[in-house]
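User: Hello, beginner here. Can you help me understand these amino acid letters and fold codes? It all follows right here:
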Amino acid sequence: MRASSRILASRSSRAASTLTLPRDAGLATDHCACAQAATCGRWVTQSTWRSLPSRRSDLPMVCATAPPIPESTSSNTSVSTGEAFAAARETRAGAVARAEGQEARRAELARDCGEQFECPPPLLPERNGFDAQALDDAEVEKATLDRLAADRERIGPVNLVAEQELAELEESRLAGAAERDELQEAIHRLRGSIGSLNREGRVRLLEAYEQVDRHFRSLFTTLFDGGQAHLALVESDDPLEAGLEIMAQPPGKRLSALTLLSGGEQALTAVALIFALFLTNPAPICVLDEVDAPLDDANVERFCDLLDRMTAETDTRYLIVTHNAVTMSRMHRLYGVTMIEKGVSRLVSVDLGGAETLLAAE
């Protein structure tokens, strides 16, 4: 042994052998196993311990400051040390298992981070502008996280076909905008056409109105053997929207509207207006139904004279429905319905012009 070592042994009392060595002895050492191991800090060498003649294989190495270990408690000390080692091994195994679980969790989170954010975890804070110094305490951050999670839940599930639906809606919007532009252009063209038609219609209407009014004035004077009448546009300055008023003044009366005249005067005024229209724009055929009914015999003669004049001046064929004998006598041909036998009707046609020719020949 070295000179600086001191060995204390007691064979009779079977006390624990002690050995005190400096820390820098340069030999293999182990911690002291005395009762003050937590604060002792002394070291003993394995080789020196084995060289002691009085050492016991079942006693731990203790320093010189430790009290002697009674022989009765040596077995309890060995049992307690074994239990401590077993507990330490179990604790270490649990820690290793937890570390492996955390490592697996870290790898899973890293994989999810790469799939969701397309960014490795070390670069994620810098990419999202995360500042660890700006974090509040745990309770505030938890409340913020709960609020954001609730907001996300209120938004609802993510629509995975939103982009496709947006494209379809955009296409529909563009198609609708194109149709709207076409409709607006068509409206502008239609309004332009309507404006052109209105302008041309006003010109033509005024021309026709002047012609009809001129013929009406002349025919009214012929039928009434005097007096005057004219047409007037009322209620609007626009000829297309204005109304037409017939103003008549038979001989010996004041100028008034058509509604203030008697029945016969109204009938003759209406006949004058009808013939004025046919003089302005002739038609192939004209049908007059009972126009001579409210007229007396003198006015019937005037009506028939005017009818002869109209026949000579126009190519219109006039069909008169009448029961007046004077009117029938002035016609060229008569068509009538007779009933020779009860329940049997028969159409009869009489050519008055041919009959007059035959009578003249006889």
About this structure: Residues 239 and 343 are 54 Å apart (CA to CA). Residues 1-67 have pLDDT under 50 and may be disordered. DSSP finds ten helices and eleven strands in the chain.
